[in-house]
Amino acid sequence: MNKKETYELLMKQIASLIEGEADNKVGVLANVSAAIHHTFETFFWTGFYLLNKENTLQLGPFQGTPACFNISVGKGVCGTAFLERRTLVVPDVEKFPGHIACSSLSRSEIVVPIYNKEDKAIGVLDIDSTQLNAFDEIDAQYLEQAMRIMAAKIYTNQ
């Protein structure tokens, strides 16, 4: 199965996993991070940072090794993607100005902003790999779709 086919199946799995679970946000975030993480062998860390207080993204459910608790909006890959409201694909984290190294094992990263139905950014999906150049436009396209599917279910009134 190629990457697109794998993502197509993952989109169906995510939709099925979260169906009827709008009131269980933590559970939805946990299961979505697990589904994404365990679908791809190259994903070292997969999880969420959620806007908790002004200018701070706080660690949410994740799969992987321990992580940074708080990231300021505008700082590192997560904070930059959130502030700029765009998906960031970073082929080599060592070359990203201001990269926050929560783990020295991380070599590449993709960060996808999450929006509520009012188009307000409320957090990010963060995925790290131990391999350089692990992410591309296919990952960006499908992970953005996954976040739209998820947010439509659990972030409708936020």
Automatic annotation (TrEMBL):
GO molecular function, one term: L-methionine-(R)-S-oxide reductase activity
Annotated GAF domain residues: 67-152
Cellular component, GO, one term: cytosol
Family stated for the protein in its record: Belongs to the free Met sulfoxide reductase family.
PANTHER family per the UniProt record, alphabetical: FREE METHIONINE-R-SULFOXIDE REDUCTASE, GAF/PUTATIVE CYTOSKELETAL PROTEIN
Protein known as: GAF domain-containing protein
